[in-house]
Write a structure and sequence with these properties.
Length: 180
């Protein structure tokens, strides 16, 4: 064990961890109208189709997409292990923005600490995720994901996880009309 600049002991593997992590930002573009892209975020059924990286699936989603709405997304790996995320949707501006808190959760949707979720590094008790949507023409749209609170040493893994989720989103959007 080593002592961090804050005076806390931490594993040497994660000695670079900091509660003051840099902001993770990912930009993605899709060949669909803005309304169709935003609709992929609008229902639990849509999220079940694409949210989480390869090898993981959402087995339960509660999603109240409204200002002050609560959410819980539970995921399982194909090894049947489970964990999830929960929080509040702080702001929704249709076809423009979704701002949500981000906390680890147990299978009942109750917030748990990063340590209880077996996650290395220093995590804040609550992080934030923001999706900002933009039209890029009749049949093209984009969003920017901004995520606060990911320890610096886990940023590459988080980017990879989001990239895999967004590839699943791309396939979802390319499929037949989803009936939103």
């Amino acid at each position: 064990m080593e002592i961090s600049p804050s005076g806390r002991k931490q594993d040497a593997k994660h000695k670079g961890s900091t509660p003051h992590s840099k902001l993770l930002v990912i930009d993605r573009q899709f060949d669909v109208p803005l309304e169709k892209l935003f609709a992929a975020f609008s229902s639990a059924e849509a999220l079940k189709r694409w949210w989480w990286p390869e090898g993981i699936y959402a087995d339960h989603i509660d999603w109240e997409l409204r200002d002050g709405g609560k959410y819980f997304i539970n995921m399982k790996g194909y090894d049947q292990s489970a964990s999830g995320m929960a929080g509040w949707i702080e702001e929704v501006v249709k076809n423009e923005r979704i701002v949500m808190t981000d906390q680890f959760a147990n299978e009942k949707g109750e917030p748990i600490s990063a340590k209880e979720a077996n996650m290395p590094g220093e995590w804040p008790a609550k992080g934030y995720i923001t999706f900002e949507f933009e039209s890029r023409g009749k049949d093209r749209s984009a969003f920017r994901l901004s995520q606060e609170g990911i320890p610096n040493e886990l940023q590459a893994e988080c980017i990879q996880g989001w990239a895999e989720s967004f590839e699943k989103l791309k396939k979802y959007l390319a499929g037949p009309a989803q009936g939103h």
